[in-house]
Structure of Ubiquitin carboxyl-terminal hydrolase:
Amino acid sequence: QVADIVKAVGNCSYNQLVEKIISCKQSDNSELVSEGFVAEQFLNNTATQLTYHGLCELTSAVQEGELCVFFRNNHFSTMTKYKGQLYLLVTDQGFLTEEKVVWESLHNVDGDGNFCDSEFHLRPPSDPETVYRGQQDQIDQDYLMALSLQQEQQNQEINWEQIPEGISDLELAKKLQEEEDRRASQYYQEQEQAAAQVQQVQGAASPASGRQSGSNERKRKEPREKEKEREKNSCVLL
């Protein structure tokens, strides 16, 4: 519907479009520079990584009652369709105490959905302030995860140069998930090794502390024995 945006964006993925914007801005061709600004404006207007066109495509592609994975903002969500409406499984920390809040409707691009129970009946949260703080914590965690992935990219833990240029977003998401699983496994192994080392140190310190305790006990007994000896040698005049 908007010809200049279609021309600027085309069929590029997010990474490809970012590279295109950088190259267009550095170009001496005014037409390419203008195209780069149009593409950049498109990214700014779709910062939520979802458009209404994409939402319509999702609604038509997902089958009724189907369970699928929705990847957005470096976050995996379980998505289903009920009576023609898309719903996301609620997993934010703010809903840990909200037992009746299970699904959130996906009917706009701003993340302002309606909360429902397991039967898809409307169930507003009991404490909106707590939910908001939990959502902010989840956003912070997603941001930290994004920074971690970016750091891994800089450290070349994922060799992006070997990834084909035309790789799909689904395949890229799988690679990112595999790397995240590897890092989580490595983290837990490090925690277990640290706990084992602490136990070894505590075990080695116990005999020494026992010897020290016995030495202190002997020091306390020696003055008592001397006092008893003095009492035996002393006499009392009545």
Helices lie at 3-9, 14-25, 30-45, 52-61, 128-154, 169-233.
